Amino acid sequence: MSTLLLSFGHGYSARALTPLLLAEGWPIHGTTRTPGKTAALAATGVTPHLMPGEDLGPLIDRASHLLISAGPDAEGDPALRLWRDRIADNAGRFQWVGYLSTTGVYGDHAGGWVGEDTALTPSTRRGRWRVAAEAEWRAIPGLPLHIFRLAGIYGPGRGPFAKVRKGTARRIIKPGQVFSRIHVEDIAQVLAASIARPRPGAVYNLCDDDPAPPQDVIAHACDLLGKPLPPEEDFATAEMTPMARSFYAESKRVRNDRIKEELGVRLRYPDYRSGLKALLEAESDGRP
């Protein structure tokens, strides 16, 4: 059977997967909400579509694989809001459907460990939206759904270096606070491995092996760049936007054993130190 990936919300993580599939001859169609981004998508080898705005029904009928990166809102998942019935009609025909969720669905565990079977107890609005969206996709009978719960994403163009260079990096200290994170190239290789080895109903945590306090990551970035450390700031009294403060509402360490055991994935960047080092080396070599 021929393959065709339809990617709803073809953003940062989906763009990292793109070259892996294009190298195997896959046609890839990706949606964006912004007309100005269609040319940039096309330049990467992806056929762009505006959503909402275009009739994607015939394309859904042709697609063998779906990837959903578009985030939900208070009204639910945007792809299902527009195309639930058409997707449901094709549920038994799809070979693989991947939904990119977040480890925020687990809520706060005071620095403790969570795995894919941990109860979903989100403590933020965004986390609750993700739990509801996961449930929406699960509710479609016969859909070969795979859920990927992503930790904090970093990679080319997204990481601490820009803030350190601009002098806007901050070391916010909240005792016991730890985050898990994942390099975008490792997200791409996990998705590719799952596509090659589908297991409908599977849930995978995507994170590296080294949950760490955020101030440690900033400090290491400063060391790599030879920049002075920003002063420590107490979380309780630091001036922060509500959005920035909300990221500190949850502290947990995320297990990633399942991607290794079921998909045979060996992380390229098992900790932030190796990931940041590779990003800096790529910059020095002039690579994107």
Name the overall outline: globular
**CATH domain topology of the domain at 5-153 and 182-208 and 254-268:** Rossmann fold
- Describe the largest sheet: 7 strands, parallel
CATH superfamily of the domain at 5-153 and 182-208 and 254-268: NAD(P)-binding Rossmann-like Domain
Strand content: 15-25%
- The end-to-end distance, rounded to whole angstroms, is 34 Å
CATH class of the domain at 5-153 and 182-208 and 254-268: Alpha Beta
Which structural class fits the helix and strand makeup?
Answer: alpha/beta
What is the H/E order?
Answer: EHEHEHEHEEHEEHEEHEHEHEHH
Number of strands: 13
The Rg value, from CA coordinates, equals 19 Å
Percent range of helical residues: 25-40%
pLDDT < 50 stretches = none
Tally the helices.
Answer: 11
CATH architecture of the domain at 5-153 and 182-208 and 254-268: 3-Layer(aba) Sandwich
Mean pLDDT: 96
Strand order of the largest sheet: 3-2-1-4-5-7-11
SSE layout and pairing:
Layout: E1 5-8, H1 12-22, E2 28-32, H2 38-43, E3 47-50, H3 57-62, E4 65-68, H4 78-89, E5 96-102, E6 113-114, H5 125-138, E7 145-150, E8 152-154, H6 161-166, E9 171-173, E10 181-183, H7 184-196, E11 203-206, H8 214-225, E12 232-234, H9 242-246, E13 253-254, H10 257-263, H11 272-284
Parallel strand pairs: 1-2, 1-4, 2-3, 4-5, 5-7, 6-13, 7-11, 8-10, 9-12
Helix pairs in contact: 1-7, 8-11
